[in-house]
Amino acid sequence: MKIEIITPDTTIYEGEVSLAQLPGLDGSFEVLNNHAPMIAALKKGKVKVIDTKKNTLFFDINGGVVEVLKNKLLVLAE
Predict the structure, then answer these.
(1) Domain with 29 in it: what CATH number?
(2) How many CB atoms lie within 10 A of CB 27?
(3) How many domains does the structure of the chain reveal?
(4) pLDDT band at 45 (very low <50, low <70, confident <90, very high)
(5) pTM of the model as a whole
């Protein structure tokens, strides 16, 4: 699935991933391929992604919103 992590200033990361773990307001959650459509608020924390080459990457965010739709994650982060 494709992920974009965007701040008001720049795009932090864009690429294909097999898993994304996000810091939701009520606790962290994971998104895998073919996840149901959803929108969720995010709190300050780390976004963990595992790319298609099995590399694990971490990105710090100060909150934001994620949209999951048709195997695409759009993370609007602060």
Answers:
(1) 2.60.15.10
(2) 7
(3) 1
(4) very high
(5) 0.91
